[in-house]
Each structure stands twice: as structure tokens, then as C-alpha cells.
Amino acid sequence: QVQLMESGGGVVQPGGSLRLSCTASRSGFVLGATAWYRQAPGKQRELVASINNFAITTYADSVKGRFTVSRDNAKNTVYLQMNSLKPEDTAVYYCNARELPGPGIIDDGPYWGQGTQVTVSS
Predict the structure, then answer these.
(1) Looking at residue 4, what is its pLDDT?
(2) Residue 36 · residue 95 · CB < 8 Å
(3) For the chain, first and last CA: distance in Å?
(4) Considering only CA atoms, which of 71, 109, 67, 108 is closest in space to residue 88?
(5) Measured CA distances, 57 to 36, 66, 84 (Å)
């Protein structure tokens, strides 16, 4: 079952911005540590950014200074703000998240969404 959902992808010109969101598609799923990956045609899937339960973040060198990952726990959402987009950022973006540990959790994942397309083109 797909338990995560990405949104916010689209077509943007170089230098533009997009904000992606990752939310749970299953009721009761509270996002824990979450990562954003991307995969371009013919390329390996790569880790773009991550954010843990304490809001500590990491970034791939290729996106440092341009992308920001954040979370809003009240909305149970993780975001990826993408600025100064380049054509090489074109890819399908996926979120990957663990379910927040708790007494009602049997399998905390990680789980994947189905991806959202980001296209950067003139």
C-alpha cells in the first residue's frame, strides 16, 4: 500500500521555485524521520535532503544553498522548498519516511510515496 503522498511538482523556468510537500495518505500515520530523493531518466535515485525527528537536516552538495527541507508537525507535513532551480534538477521527487515510533506502531517503515514530477525548462 502507498502510505505517503507527494505534491507540489510542476513545470518551472530556470531560476524559479517550487515547494514540495510530503504527507501521509494513511490515517493515523505520523511522519518521523523523512528524506527526499529524486530520480531522473537513466539516472540512479539520489538522496536530496533529509530531516529527522529533531529537525536536524542534511543536503546533497548539488542542492546546498538552494533547497531547504523543513517540517510542520502540527500539519504532519514535510516540505522541500526548491529555489534557483536548474534544468539538472528535473526529476521525479519522492519522499521516504518512517512512521513516528509509538506503542501502536508495529512496522515503522520506511515508506515511499509515488513521486511528483519536477521539470525545469525554458
Answers:
(1) 97
(2) yes
(3) 37
(4) 67
(5) 11, 14, 19
